[in-house]
Amino acid sequence: KSSAASDVYKRQIIDIGDDVHESDYFKIKKEEFFTKKRTQNIAYPRQIAMYLCREMADFSYPRIGEFFGGRDHTTVIHAYEKIVKKIKEDPNCEKTITYLVDKLKQ
After folding, report:
1. Collapsing DSSP states into helix, strand and coil, what is residue 100?
2. How far apart (Å, rounded) are the C-alpha atoms in residues 101 and 56?
3. Distance between CA 76 and CA 82 in Å, rounded?
4. In this structure, what DSSP letter does residue 78 have?
5. Each residue of 14-26: pLDDT tens digit?
């Protein structure tokens, strides 16, 4: 990951909450996205956003946790690993990630 590309992603990643919660895949309110709620309809999109922050912008786990409501870095690690596993097992998850990555690169 080049520094220039990483800088572009870092600027764009700030809008990831908007992209994920407004996508056709997830219908949640923006304020719910950054809350402490752990219901599946909120936690899963949040985990995807954490995964994208790590993959595309190479943010540290603590920084991602801070961005998502002050969560512990171990929560972010769990989210990242869960999405990595889900991508391998679920073609719909892989499709969702591809869609969001393409959207962020625009």
Report:
1. helix
2. 8
3. 10
4. H
5. 566 666 655 556 7
User: How far is residue 68's CA from residue 34's CA, in Å, rounded to a whole number?
Assistant: 5
Instruction: Find out whether 68 and 56 touch, Cβ atoms under 8 Å.
Output: no
For residue 4, the Cα-to-chain-centroid distance in whole angstroms is 21
Tokens of 42: 């909120």
Q: pLDDT tens digits for 1-53?
A: 455 555 554 555 556 666 665 555 677 776 777 777 788 888 888 899 899 88
* Torsion angles phi and psi, residue 27, rounded to 5: -120, 85
User: What six digits make up the tokens of 70?
Assistant: 């002050």
φ, ψ of residue 70 to 5 degrees: the values are 75, 30
Structure tokens given for 100:
């969001």
Pairwise CA distance, residues 71 & 91, whole Å: 28
pLDDT digits (tens, 9 = 90+) for 83-105: 999 999 999 999 989 988 887 77
Give the pair of three-digit tokens for residue 104: 């962020």
